[in-house]
Amino acid sequence: MWITLTGFMGSGKSSVARHLGTELGLPVVDLDACIAAQAGLSIAEIFAEQGEAAFRRLELEQLRRLDVDEDLILDPGGGLVETLEAAEVLRRRGPVFWLDVRWDQVRSRLRGLEADRRPLVARLGWPGVEELYRRRLVRYARSADFRLGSVEAGPEDTARQVRLKLNAWQALRTAEGGVR
Ligand code: S3P
């Protein structure tokens, strides 16, 4: 089963994934890191040299390469949900948790994060990134099983909220006796 964390850039997916991985004893797959390793290029270089559409294809390709039967925490880039096929794959593999962070927090977090993984911020500028954030909300909402709306509390607390919802999700699956 894959436990996926989605959400906009700067929503804290990677920190929460690390905590969850440690607490649940599961490997964490950073999809952007897999893409960069496979391409031998940084995310910014892929965007600059091949364009965003090529990056989205690489994202889907890497997603398809992951072991379907492995139990893992998946930490994808915030734009993966733009690819509907990818969003469908996530839903089939296990529960999807959306870290729904307010725009003002995303913006202040993004200022302090490394630009190399976030070429869209440089390309779009803040008004463009805000527009993208608002446009994507519906995608996150549609592709998630759970929304975590109070993630200001920090990664430990968010990871705890994920575990609580995960327990409920697993209990429900067991009661239903089926696998999605
Ligand atoms: C992107 C998010 C980034 C990275 C790339 C594109 C996006 O990942 O995949 O820069 O389209 O939102 P993070 O969400 O981990 O920053």
Quickly describe the structure.
This protein has helices at 13-24, 31-39, 43-50, 52-65, 84-93, 103-111, 119-143, 155-176; strands at residues 2-6, 28-30, 72-75, 96-99, 146-148. By secondary structure, the chain is an alpha/beta fold. Helix 1 packs across helix 8 (155-176), helix 2 (31-39) crosses helix 4 and helix 3 (43-50) crosses helix 4 (52-65).
Question: Could you explain how this protein is built, in words?
Answer:
The chain is built from eight helices and five strands. With 180 residues, it is an alpha/beta fold. Strands 2-3-1-4-5 form a five-stranded parallel beta sheet, sandwiched between helices. The longest helix is centred in the C-terminal third of the chain and has 25 residues, at 119-143. Helix content is 61%, strand content 11%. The protein has helices at 13-24, 31-39, 43-50, 52-65, 84-93, 103-111, 119-143, 155-176, and strands spanning 2-6, 28-30, 72-75, 96-99, 146-148. Helix 1 (13-24) crosses helix 8, helix 2 packs across helix 4 (52-65) and helix 3 (43-50) packs across helix 4. The N and C termini lie close together (10 Å). Shikimate-3-phosphate binds next to helix 7.
